[in-house]
Write a structure and sequence with these properties.
- This protein has 252 residues and is α+β, with helices and mostly antiparallel strands.
- The protein folds into two domains: 4-64 and 243-248, no CATH class; 67-241, Pseudouridine synthase, CATH 3.30.2350.
- Helices cover 27% and strands 34% of the residues.
- It has seven helices and 13 strands.
- The strands form three sheets. Strands 1, 2, 3, 4, 7, 10, 11, 12 and 13 form a nine-stranded mixed β-sheet that branches. Strands 5-6 form a two-stranded antiparallel ribbon. A two-stranded antiparallel ribbon has the order 8-9.
- A hairpin with a 2-residue loop joins strand 8 (123-124) and strand 9 (127-128).
- The two termini are 16 Å apart.
Amino acid sequence: MDKVLNLYKKRGETPLECIYRFKMVNPEYTDKAMTYAGRLDPLAEGVLVVLSGEAVHTKEDFLALPKEYEVDVLFGVSTDTYDVLGMATELSVAPVETSLAEEVLKNFSGQHTLSYPPYSSKTVNGKPLFSYARAGNIDSINIPTREVDIYSLECESWKEISSNEVLAGVRSAINSVQGDFRQEASLAQWQKLLDGKDFKFMLAHIHVSCSSGAYMRSLAHEWGRAIGIPALAYRIFRTKVGDFDVSHSKVF
């Protein structure tokens, strides 16, 4: 049995659900202690490094590994989770000046301070941020920030996407998630916002190489704020953790 595994986490599942599914398919690991090194949000997919047996005690060594992502950033809508799983907080149909947006994106390269998303597991006074957010008192605390290194950041393409296409993508993403993530309320709000509308949005595809601890949701959100147009992470695909590449991930 491998002590360090490169698993492919599917969109819609949590890292723990990915480990449980792996154990179901590989019963020889059923009684083995297992943990993941570097979580992925439910809607993110790609490389998940999982440690088994004695290797669980080396978790800190893996947490610090650099990461690479392919991210689709949707301009025109923001949510309280900074991705499509959240409740919409702002809508804009203002045109995106793509050349300006790309120039602004360059400012995020190098060492950068990013805020944690309000819906994240980062703790404040012993409670995860999502607990404050769900209780409606996130404004009562100072949301922590983190210094991260963005080694390279490139906008590879842009495309226009209709409100119907966005809604179909959102519906597919939200329906892929199990557990209690406010899916019903969120989807109802998205449908009210976009169903039957003839809006046009811009979708940017970016490649990011960064240090550990960089939230792609925060990067998307803050990029939008920097150009004055709401934005969110429409799709997050982690392609690499250290030397663990998605091309070698176990798909099961």
